[in-house]
């Protein structure tokens, strides 16, 4: 097989192949193959290397794709250290539920691996556990140890299971909205898009399970009354503002509208509240509760960061406005 | 080899479509041997009497419409069956919600597609025992997991961002359904290796991103999905998705 012939044929399908490969002449130079014979033995590796170079990730990704993936990566770190801290806390997660949270923690770890792989050298550095304040206090004092928390409204997050579950629900539901809002930006790279979709649905499975656990817990010792709400495994209307709507920060923005919230163009990207019942210009008739449950809504990056920033230590610089 | 490199779609398709097709063949790690095999594989065996969902974004919407019809019909049948009538209130509530959601999804696609919608499909649920909880839950799990894998695997074929978002709005709800049904069958099975490529830390579990697996849902391409869906559709209602490969 003639490699140049192959690339020439690729050109018929993808006229930009040479742009992706620096230039026609430098193809071999790039791989240190200048002047060497291309044998059948080295060909598979060479072709795969060229394709990786031409269509792979890292420095060739557009800036908006990098921004979406790095926001996703930041959220995954937020979640990973949250679940890992919960699993390390003594007497927080009942033994029956530990397998679930180990799975969720490990899934987030896998997502971090995937996103790092897609971003290559452009991935943000691991901010570490100390970058987060899961009390929701945005405490400027870094956390000490694995279970210490700041002074936000969720300061018992690693000692009271209902609070842990409530914060968890806020994270997963925010994550689902964030991936849904970011997906259109990734459409230029179908493989990265599919990976993001495959993360998105796993986050939804996590949310379903966390909500199922919360539904099963009734009136346990719980200092924050709305935390006692019994959610469905899917978002119903505005979910009463989420697990803790009356605290500061409130969980309401997790289910609220983003920007823009509406448009007259059915195909425009909009970020309505979770109780929205109009999609592609089609308004779902009948039962508004069921209609809202049947669709999850996307959220824009600015709104997502506004929510997430409440759980990042100020000095971490995570989720910048 | 030449055949492989020609766009499989008609020449009047936009360039982005052609490149997408090419990208599928050129997975970065795919060896030349694999390329050759892919090039020689001419699988056009789908039956002539199948209802093809069509091409482009309307084709994907019809593909989703077909699957949602199947799910809606399934939950309608569940609600008419003996298991449901004897189920505890909590389980009835779940199936009431699922039936409403799936009917809403099916009706939504029908309305959005207008005259471009495929016909109403006739399901064949003869292999499901609607009097038996295990049979119902097993089938429900299969339909919900299939729906998630199908939407995820079809995302790359969508060209209009607005359609991608609508598919996204629905797929996460399907994933919520799937997780709940799986938890009803076996608690803590909301993600499992049959549907998610589970991640296993290779060192300390507290070190993020180091281990085997990915934590990604296993998506499925339309060709695989329609084969499964067709097992639950009557002759004359079986579908194909020949434009999406």
From TrEMBL, chain A:
Residues 239-261 are annotated as: Disordered. Pfam families: Ferritin_2. This is Ferritin-like domain-containing protein. It comes from Hymenobacter volaticus.
Automatic annotation (TrEMBL), chain B:
This is Ferritin-like domain-containing protein. It holds the Pfam family Ferritin_2. SUPFAM superfamilies: Ferritin-like (SSF47240). InterPro entries: Ferritin-like_SF. It comes from Hymenobacter volaticus.
């Amino acid at each position: 097989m003639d490699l140049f012939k192959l690339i020439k044929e690729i050109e018929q399908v993808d006229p930009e192949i040479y742009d992706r490969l620096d230039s026609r002449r430098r193809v071999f130079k790039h791989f240190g193959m200048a002047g060497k014979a291309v044998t059948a033995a080295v060909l598979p590796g060479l072709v795969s290397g060229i394709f990786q170079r031409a269509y792979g990730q890292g420095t060739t990704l557009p800036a908006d794709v990098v921004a979406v993936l790095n926001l996703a990566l930041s959220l995954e770190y937020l979640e990973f250290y949250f679940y890992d801290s919960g699993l390390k806390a003594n007497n927080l997660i009942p033994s029956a539920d530990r397998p679930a949270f180990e799975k969720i923690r490990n899934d987030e770890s896998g997502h971090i691996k995937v996103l790092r792989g897609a971003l290559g050298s452009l991935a943000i550095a691991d901010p570490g556990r100390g970058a987060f304040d899961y009390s929701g206090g945005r405490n400027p004092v870094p956390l000490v140890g694995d279970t210490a928390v700041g002074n936000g409204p969720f300061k018992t997050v690693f000692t009271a299971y209902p609070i842990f579950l409530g914060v968890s629900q806020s994270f997963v539901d925010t994550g689902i909205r964030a991936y849904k809002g970011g997906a259109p930006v990734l459409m230029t790279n179908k493989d990265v898009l599919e990976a993001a979709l495959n993360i998105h649905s796993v986050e939804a499975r996590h949310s379903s399970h966390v909500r199922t656990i919360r539904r099963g817990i009734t009136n346990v010792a719980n200092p924050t009354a709305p935390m006692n709400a019994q959610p469905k495994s899917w978002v119903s209307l505005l979910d009463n503002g989420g697990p803790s709507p009356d605290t500061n920060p409130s969980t309401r923005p997790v289910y609220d509208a983003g920007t823009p919230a509406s448009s007259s163009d059915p195909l425009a990207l909009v970020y309505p509240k979770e109780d929205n019942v109009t999609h592609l210009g089609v308004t779902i008739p009948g039962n508004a509760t069921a209609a809202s449950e049947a669709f999850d809504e996307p959220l824009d990056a600015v709104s997502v960061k506004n929510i997430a920033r409440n759980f990042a230590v100020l000095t971490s610089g995570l989720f910048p406005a | 080899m030449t055949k492989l490199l020609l766009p499989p779609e008609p020449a009047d398709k936009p360039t982005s479509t052609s490149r997408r097709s090419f990208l599928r063949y050129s997975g970065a790690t795919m060896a030349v041997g694999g390329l050759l095999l892919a090039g020689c594989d001419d699988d056009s065996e789908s039956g002539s009497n199948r209802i093809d969902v069509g091409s482009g974004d309307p084709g994907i919407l019809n593909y989703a419409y077909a699957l949602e019809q199947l799910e809606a019909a399934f939950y309608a049948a569940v609600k008419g069956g003996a298991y449901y009538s004897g189920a505890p209130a909590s389980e009835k509530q779940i199936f009431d919600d699922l039936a409403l959601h799936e009917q809403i999804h099916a009706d939504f696609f029908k309305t959005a597609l207008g005259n471009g919608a495929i016909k109403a499909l006739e399901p064949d649920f003869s292999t499901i025992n609607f009097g038996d909880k295990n049979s119902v839950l097993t089938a429900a799990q299969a339909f919900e997991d299939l729906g998630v894998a199908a939407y995820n695997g079809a995302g790359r074929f969508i060209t209009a961002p607005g359609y991608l978002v609508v598919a996204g709005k629905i797929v996460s709800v399907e994933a919520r359904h799937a997780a709940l049904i799986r938890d009803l069958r076996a608690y803590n099975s909301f993600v499992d290796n049959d549907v998610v490529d589970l991640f296993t830390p290779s060192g300390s579990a507290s070190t993020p991103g180091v281990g085997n697996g990915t934590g990604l849902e296993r998506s499925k391409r339309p060709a695989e999905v329609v084969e499964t869906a067709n097992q639950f559709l009557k002759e004359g209602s079986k579908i194909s998705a020949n434009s999406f490969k």
